[in-house]
Amino acid sequence: MNLSNFRLISLIFLIVAATLLGYFETNRFDSIVLVSALGVEKKEEKYVVSIQVFNPAANQKQGTDEIGGYTYVQSGRTIPEAIEKIDKKLSKKLYLNTLQVVALGENVVKEEGLNPLCDFLIRNTSIPANTQLVVTKKYAPDVFLQLFTPDQKLSSLYVTSMLKQYKSHWGALVLTSPERVKSLLEEHTLDIVIPYIEIRGEIEEGLTKRNIEQFKPSSLLSLSGLGAFHKDKLHRFLSASESDILSLIKDVNQKVSMTVPCEDSNGFVTIDTIQTSSSISSKVKPLSFAIDIHIEANINSMTCQKELSDPKTIKELEKTIEAKITEDVNNYVSKELESPSDVMGLKDVLYREHPHYWKKNKGTLENSHADWDVKANVNVQIVKIGYTNKISS
């Protein structure tokens, strides 16, 4: 066989292969529905499972006004049983390989906990390893999955966008794949956090398409903070500011803005962090913890009557900012010490730095930490002050 014949046969083979592949792929996607999100809640001893699927017509050029997807809800004695009920009611097979978000209701994470849920998600080989867990506050997951959201055609896609955005605030704390959560739970010295979402505004309006047909949506999804767990059960919801402080303590390199009052309370200064770092150390005689936080920042805005061209003023501002952040951190720490959960990771620090002490006192240390001595030390360094006008005399 000469070279020209070989090339001709190869070309024919490629054309036939591409045609067959296109045929099989077309027929394959005609027989399945792509799943975007899964919701799980517990009600009256049964699992309430909701599944959000993509609407392929919405992704076509002429489908700009199409609804982005549909949500189906069924209950069952187990999660697979409920999913199977949904599957049987559809004309196409559910395809879980495209799953992006698993929304967990308050009841199921407070009463049952994360372990059985993570076990199911990890065992199911159709569910991607990078699927993210979130908790829904107040409303059940099926309500969240029916919400019309601006910018994204599906509420699950809206949440994944918010999770990416909030990585600058909370870092790896927003990475909550089932395998990661399960591995953290097995550490036994760590309590975990999972982002939670809220629906703000008029919920009834948010469940209609009118919500995205006006300049000001009546209902919005909010990634409001982190849910703090004790072992594998939800204990409480942290506010956005508490979540920021926890992330600062947990050595997240935050890119955020912070606003604090001026020393004379006449005006405010806003800084943009460019680098944050922290570490926790422990002592056992007596038992105490030190949280050391370092922040490098630029001044974004200032309404204080200060002369920024004077190096002394910069030092005074740094001390003022340090004092305010130290106060906020210590207030948060005091609140956490009253809680049974330890999302700050103090027990883990003690276990790693003083393993013999931990082993000897494990029973007492695991049950209470209300009387632990924990102090924060904050160091702020202002790097750039930007353009400033001199204060006239």
Automatic annotation (TrEMBL):
Q: Which domain of life is it from?
A: Bacteria
Keyword DNA damage attached = no
What keywords appear on the UniProt entry?
Germination, Lipoprotein, Membrane, Palmitate, Signal
Any idea where this protein resides?
Membrane
Q: Name one Pfam family in it.
A: Spore_GerAC_N
Domain Spore germination protein N-terminal, by residue range, is 30-199
Membrane topology classification = Lipid-anchor
| DNA damage listed as a keyword | no
**What region holds the Spore germination GerAC-like C-terminal domain?**
224-386
Indicate where this protein is primarily found.
Answer: membrane
**Which protein family is it in?**
Belongs to the GerABKC lipoprotein family.
PANTHER family under this entry?
SPORE GERMINATION PROTEIN B3
Protein name, entry field: Ger(X)C family germination protein
Tell me which species this is from: Priestia iocasae
